[in-house]
Design a protein that fits this description.
Layout lengths: L2 E2 L3 E3 L2 E3 L6 E5 L6 E6 L3 H18 L4 H17 L1 H12 L3 H22 L6 E3 L3 E7 L2 E5 L5 H15 L2 E5 L6 H13 L6 E3 L4 H10 L5 E5 L2 H11 L5 E5 L5 E4 L5 H13 L11 E5 L3 H13 L19 H17 L2 E4 L17 E4 L6 H4 L6 E7 L2 H9 L8 E3 L3 H8 L8 E2 L23 H6 L2 E7 L1
Parallel strand pairs: 1-5, 8-9, 8-11, 9-10, 11-12, 13-14, 13-18, 14-17, 16-17, 18-19
Antiparallel strand pairs: 2-3, 4-5, 6-7, 7-20, 15-16
The structure holds nicotinamide-adenine-dinucleotide (NAD).
Nicotinamide-adenine-dinucleotide binds next to helix 7 and helix 8.
């Protein structure tokens, strides 16, 4: 059944959009229409930003305890409407139900609550010999998100913005706008004052420049592709707005000599296959000692076989479709390119079950003998495609790991954590996962180089939404 959303959420009210243009949200599991949402235009942007600017004075003056209470109230509302949020994620981007429940929705609710605990840090001050520093909210923030973890990325921006005392415009990806509209309703019912949170569904490429250059915006927090992130920064630059960029990646994963190969390869394959490979920090370049390449390929193929695509609404499905048919054809083109570039296809590129033919499915795909000059090793594929790359010495592995325009994440599996940590310190990336560690929403997350300049999550993430003021005594 298709749900037709008719309104934007502006200044505490469900507001008819200025234009009657609609955005179609297509279910990538079967190609059917899942929802339609309004397409906000410049008039709607002006109204939302005016509301956010007006609300800032009183909202930023509220106590941290009050804001923490509202964050918990919103989280309670999310718990109560968890099934709707799960359905939105499955229906718009094809995430399997188990993952949508545990990671995309429950994980996001838990992470959102953690910002209630951090709100009190807005009262921290640091005293030096003749001055004191305090933190203040940065102002009106535009929060632009992609489609791959739509609720989690929303929460990673909205949580710290509210905790800090900022007012916001939420701009979800056009492919996955529904969870933001549900959240707006939850926020409304939780009693968040009018104008503090506004939701504009729109096509980013159409309204991005107007939105990000608007005089009433103090900060843009953008998560998405490096290409769009650059456009956002260019639009914001003349107004000297703060821009926090969380962009793409092509993250290396060094399996050092002496590591438990079976455990290390399993971890690496699963890391790439989860969410059908649509994870910005996925460890997509697996570096393996040359003498262990064949063994690594064998293990990788065995693990990949456990990740056969299926209907995302089936509880046992581990991999659903890609989030759109456009993404499916993009990934398929990279697979063909890898074959043409001479990479060895270990598994993937095989015909799928006929029952999946209407969906945007791609089989788990593993290339080996990949060199770092191949396009499949340099560009972000954003699908279930892993590149295994042999190396002769650890020095060479570190050089290959750093030979990328990106620097979002990395991983090291060595004989023990001490050795892995030493290797990790030599990789130019914002995170390094040691010995099979999992994502941690308390730890700062963000990129070096073309992966961005921001840090999200935890106390560092809260500080992104603050200005530092010095009181000179
Ligand atoms: P995208 O850049 O096409 O879109 C992301 C968001 O930006 C969407 O909301 C879109 O509407 C908006 N947008 C597009 N053009 C814009 C413009 N000119 N001005 C303003 N907004 C604009 O990216 P995508 O395809 O939705 O997401 C995939 C990308 O996101 C991948 O590159 C992935 O690595 C990256 N990503 C990064 C992180 C991170 O934290 N570093 C997390 C998730 C995804």
């Amino acid at each position: 059944m298709t749900t037709a959303y008719q309104h934007l959420y502006i200044n505490g009210q469900w507001t008819a959009p200025n234009s009657d243009r609609q955005i179609r949200v297509v279910n990538p599991a079967n190609g059917e229409l899942f929802a339609t949402v309004p397409s906000a235009d410049h008039h709607d942007i002006d109204a939302a930003l005016h509301a956010a600017k007006e609300a800032f004075a009183s909202w930023s003056a509220t106590t941290a305890a009050y804001r923490a209470g509202l964050i918990h109230a919103i989280a309670d509302g999310m718990e109560a409407r968890k099934d709707e949020l799960i359905d939105a994620v499955i229906g718009s981007m094809g995430c399997p139900i188990a993952l949508a429940d545990e990671l995309q929705v429950q994980g996001s609710i838990d992470a959102f609550r953690s910002f209630a605990e951090l709100a009190g840090h807005m009262d921290d001050s640091e005293t030096f010999d003749n001055y004191i520093t305090v933190k203040e909210p940065v102002g009106v923030c535009v929060l632009i998100n992609p489609w791959n973890y739509p609720l989690s990325q929303l929460v990673g921006k909205l949580g710290p913005a509210l905790a800090a005392g900022c007012t916001v415009i939420l701009k979800p990806a056009e492919q996955t706008p529904v969870q933001d509209l549900i959240l707006a309703d939850i926020i409304h019912n939780a009693g968040v004052p009018a104008g503090v949170v506004n939701v504009l569904t729109a096509v980013g490429a159409d309204i991005g420049e107007y939105l990000c250059s608007h005089k009433d915006v103090d900060m843009v927090s953008f998560t998405g592709s490096t290409v769009a992130g650059i456009k956002v920064a260019q639009a914001a630059a003349p107004g000297v707005k703060r821009v926090c960029q969380e962009l793409g990646g092509k993250s290396p994963y060094i399996i050092a000599p002496g590591a438990d190969l079976a455990a290390a390869v399993r971890y690496g394959v699963e890391d790439v296959m989860i969410n059908a490979g649509q994870t910005c920090c996925a460890l997509t370049r697996m570096l393996v000692p040359a003498g262990q390449l064949e063994a690594a390929e064998r293990i990788a193929a065995e693990v990949a076989a456990e990740w056969q695509p299926g209907n995302p609404r089936h509880p046992d499905t581990m991999m659903g479709p890609l989030s759109s048919h456009a993404q499916q054809s993009r990934v398929q083109q990279y697979i063909e390119l890898g074959i043409n570039e001479g990479a060895r296809l270990v598994c993937g590129n095989e015909p799928l079950d006929a029952a999946l033919s209407d969906g945007a499915y791609v089989a788990p795909t593993i290339f080996s003998a990949v060199t770092n000059t191949m396009t499949i090793a340099r560009e972000e594929i954003f699908g279930p495609v892993l590149c295994i790359m042999p190396y002769d010495t650890l020095e060479e592995a570190i050089t290959i790991a750093n030979d990328t325009p990106y620097g979002l994440s990395s991983g090291v599996f060595a004989k023990d954590a001490d050795e892995a940590k030493q290797i990790a310190r030599r990789i130019r990336a914002g995170q390094c996962y040691i010995q099979g560690a999992l994502f941690n929403t308390d730890a700062p997350f963000g990129g070096y180089k073309q992966s961005g300049n921001g840090r999200e999550w935890g106390l560092t993430g809260l500080h992104e939404y603050t200005e530092t003021k010095a009181l000179i005594i």
